[in-house]
Amino acid sequence: MASDSDSDEDFVTYGTPLEPLEEDEPLKKPVPLHEQTVKDEKGRYQRFHGAFTGGFSAGYFNTVGTKEGWAPSTFVSSRQQKAEKQHVRPEDFMDDEDFSEHGIAPREITTSQEFSSGRKDAVREKARAVNAQAALIPGDTLLEELISPARLSIGVELLRKMGWKEGQGVGPRVKRKARRQQTKGSSRVHGVVLPPAGSEDSEQEEDDDDEEFAPENVTFAPKDVTPVDFNPKVGVQGLGYRGLDPGLALLGGGAAEHIDLFRPQSDTRSRLFGGAQRGSRRGGGVAGQAFGVGALEDDDDEEVYHRDSMSRYDTVLGGEEPGDGLYGWTAPQQYKKKAEKSKDASYLGKILEGFTLAQKPVRDKTIFPPPDLPRDYRPVHRFRPAVDVKSLSGVSPALAEALKTSRGHMVKEEPEQGGRHQLDSGQRRALLGEDTLQGPSSVMELLRPEDRERLKNLRNSSNVPATKAAPTPLSQDALKSAVTLAGSLAARAAGSADHGHDRGHDHGRQQEALAAWKGIQTTSQTFRPFEKNPSKQARYEMYLNRLKQGDKDALEQSLDSGVTEWERSRERDEFVRASILYRPSSSSLSSRFTRAKKEEDDNSVEVSRDEEGDVDDKQAAVNMKMFGKLTRETFEWYPDKLLCKRFNVPDPYPGCGIVGLPKVKRDKFSVFNFLTVTESREPPAPPKPPESGKRSRWDVSGQKAEEKKKEEDPLSELLSAARNQTETKPEKTLPASTSTNHQTPDSRTKEAKSADQEKGNKDDQEEEEVEEEENRPPMDLFKAIFAGSSDEKSSSSSEGESEDEEEEVGDIKKEEVQGEPQLINLFKVPSSSSSSSVTSSTTTPNTTSSRHTAVVSTQNSTQVEEEFGPKLPPPSAALSRGGATSIRSPAEEEKLSKRSKDKKHKNKKQHKHKKEKKKKKHKKHKHKGKQQKKSKKETSDSSSEEDSDGGEPEQVSTEELLKRLKSMKSHETW
Amino acid sequence: MAATLAVGSGVFVMTFPQPRPQAPQLPQHLLTTIDCQQGAVRAVRFNADGNYALSCGSDKSLKLWSVSRGTLLKTYSGHGYEVLDADGSYDNSQLCSCSSDKTVILWDVATGQVTRKLRGHAGKVNCVQFNEEATVILSGSIDGTVRCWDTRSRRFEPIQILDEARDGISSLKVVQHELLTGSVDGRVRRYDLRMGQLHVDFISSPITCVCFSQDGQCTLSSSLDSTVRLLDKSTGEMLGEYKGHKMKGYKLDCCLSSKDTHVLSCSEDGHVYCWDLVEGSLSLKLPVGKAVVQSLSFHPTETCLLTAMEGRVQLWGLEPEETVKTEEDTMAS
Lengths: 974, 333
Prior knowledge:
CATH class of chain B: Mainly Beta
Organism (chain B): Labrus bergylta (ballan wrasse)
Subcellular location (chain B): Cytoplasm
WD repeats (chain B): 34-75, 76-117, 118-153
Largest sheet of chain B: 4 strands, antiparallel
Distance between the termini of chain A: 36 Å
Family (chain B): Belongs to the WD repeat MORG1 family.
Radius of gyration of chain A: 54 Å
Low-confidence stretches of chain B: 1-11, 323-333
CATH superfamily of chain B: YVTN repeat-like/Quinoprotein amine dehydrogenase
Number of strands of chain B: 28
Oligomer: heterodimer
Helix content of chain A: 40-55%
Order of helices and strands of chain B: EEEEEEEEEEEEEEEEEEEEEEEEEEEE
GO biological process, one term (chain B): mRNA splicing, via spliceosome
Strand content of chain A: under 5%
């Protein structure tokens, strides 16, 4: 390009340029090493004294700071930056452990009081107290008892609201007889921590209550349970060791009457459990096992290490009175017995903390003496023949060896009785709580009747030896199991040790396999279960083939004879199993599964789910200028994931596979598919004009076609359309090509004219046309319509139509005659550019360039220009002439003005013409929709064609129309 | 501007009592005329910062100009047919252009080489635009689809094809996460990527050009019924209607001024019409020439306008060269 050369100087420069070198400037000498100095930020020299001693000198004589010592931190006024001031808290200097000492709350997440259960829980407290007794320092929990939070935990409050009361257990109410009034208070069972030491009164089993008397139909809350305090044992003392009792040690026990804790331990505990005070009170002093007698103790006659009192022992044979106030009363025998039983425990001695006496005595372990060796026993081991371990895949060799030696052959899988694979489908269904599967319940139902019959015959007649070995229900069982589960089969086949049984079993299944495969001539590839082992697979296939032929000895014949018996049996099992499992589906499974009708449904088309609403309403709204809700529609739209990523926007529908508008599949060939734009099955926008005033002929005919279609069968319509199409196809191209070839200049003029026409047309006319184009219904519709019309015409042949046709063509001709003088002008303006073929105008280059190409393409290109909405403005005349001059010459000016004038003129003319047409339209509105529609539709196209065969207007027949349609279609496909 | 505009109600409120409304700041003086020598200029576009201009010629070339000096910087040739639209990336490192040859080309600005040639449209490509980060090129074609091309990957297939339009796409604009398309089927579609929604506004007349307002609250759409409409983006209600120009057959541009004060539109009668956005009154009728004003582009920040007519590109500014304009300069009528 010529302008490139001068534009090269106009590049933008970046950065700061280097200083220009002056020629006479002396070269800079390099600075010697000793002159290279280092300065600090204040410009003072810094001495370098070696890398190992710290690099440069710093501070005051290489110390830190200044002459005065540490460099005082420079004063910074904090007036402006108070907010930023760092407050150092004492906590920063403290250890975490010390926080609590100084009352600093920990800053960690703890359970808030609301949810903590630190409330007064009588039972838990009791348990704690009990356990505290056993602690090293008894009475540990005293403090905790004194300080108790006032609030209840949320769980307790909830329970209370549900009707729970303190002291009760949790759970459903129990129907139980009322407790009788006990003299010793409420002695309950307290789980394992119950200390039964000598107090048989506490052993009040629930069973006991059963014998008591109480009114019927009264329920009680369940008994409360004292939770076990699972404190780990921390000391080194032995089990049952009891620490010093502070009650006795410190207070001498005398004043300890009020507080439970300060009683001697056994008493305390019994009190805790509501037990009665017992026996004599000790004098005091330090008691317990930890210490002997203190120095201050004066009674020397006490035992030193362990004090025991007679009160711990029963003095009466046969036990004390039960303490329930029933002593002497002839209570039922059972009660007595129970009491006695528990009483026995007390004689066994002291029971350790946390232990109770077993209710049931442990059964004696009977020890059998070792068997007597036979006399002739010789402890020499005899080895069994080796089995190929490698063939047993999945098992370690050692294990396999072990199994072999132990059982003679390796069991593949020890079936677990009642395991998952042992259940049948019914049982599993019951376990899972599922509904019964829809479909045949029995295998026999799955089989075809003939198969069933054959099976029955087989079982009855030919299988006598088999049934002898194995009873009939067994084979039935085998049938069932074969279908239901592979696992059970495998397990059963491999796992059963009983060989005779196995045999019968096997035989039954062989019969079944035979029944399944017999007579089936499937050449298609079936499942190959032993693909990994080709020889085995070959054997299996041989077996199958024999099965198909109905060979009863198929199995035995097809087995490999060169292997061990065990392997043979194994293979036999496998083959039978496989043949049953992978039996041809026609017999068993076909009824359960429905085959997909078609892989690819060609007859359906994807249609967007959300259809646009009625265009009429919108058009009305637009006319009323009521934009907004009426004209606005919002759809769900799924952008591509990558697109969101590129736009830096989060995916609005994460994890959704849809892209674009959601689509639904619909029948492709359904006419309604295309007729219904709205959900209400109304005719679509194109055939129905939004405004009656702007009604184009297209629309009328469309409506008519619609109506017609309703009457006729759409399918036959389509068919006839297709037929017509094929008929007219060969005829179509030839005349078109000739016409365009001969008439190119003419057609171009026409095109130019039409272009101008379009430009200069009236508003509504314009809109109308565009409307037509934009809302063009799909080809199928056209086909259907026009095929129908042509059919109709051929059959009924209304004269009015042809008349109209004639009239219209005549009209067009007239128009042409009228427009003749202008044609030159019209031609000139756009084609002045076209004549100079280098510069391109909107319309002409297409035609010029493609003139020598196929006719269809010419039509295409011309069509393209007119088919789609707004055009590009044509380049000016100045441009077309080379475009070098930017100033317009007067001649051009003139021409332009002329052009505009022409336009005006033409406008007028067109206006008139349009009026005419309108009139016409009103006139023949009724019976002449389609033809008009077509001729109007492709103004340029058809006009040129009409021009070409204008001599015989009657010839504008269905063929012609179809031709045009075809051309339209080819444009679409282009 | 939008602060003074009570959206939706149609009531206009002045937030600040201005002592005297400023005279309209409009580019009414011809500063430069560039003869592009590339056939008819189909589109002229400012780059992102407004220092450079792109002109799309019907002789298959795309040219880069320095606006201030009016000099040609580079010619990009590689299209097979006339270039219809172009856009520059935010960092001025890349250009994209579309053409009647159904392709979209991504150019390297400095070398002038074709970085990528994107084929896939079934018809001529009317409009093309980068997204904000130049990671995606969006192109709208006469085949009724908008294709989203990835510039980051080597993939030659579009990321997504938006085929919702029932007719050709005549114009599209991208702002942040929103894509505005105008179609010949008379609908303005706004794709909201963040919300995953598609809003369709029915205008009924074929759309020739769509624009977002600078504040992103309104959309401007010109259609072949010789009307420019300002719609509220969120509700679709019409806020303003601008008439008087002539746009009946050609795909001509419209735009908003850099401060959203005025609406500008090309006209087939050789003028650029300029309306006051709020009042809807015609503030300026700029005589560009005798032919059709094909394209126009408003400077992103300044009061500066580029127009294309036939083979010329003209730059219009607030003040004539070297002379200070005063307010009594009458508007051209």
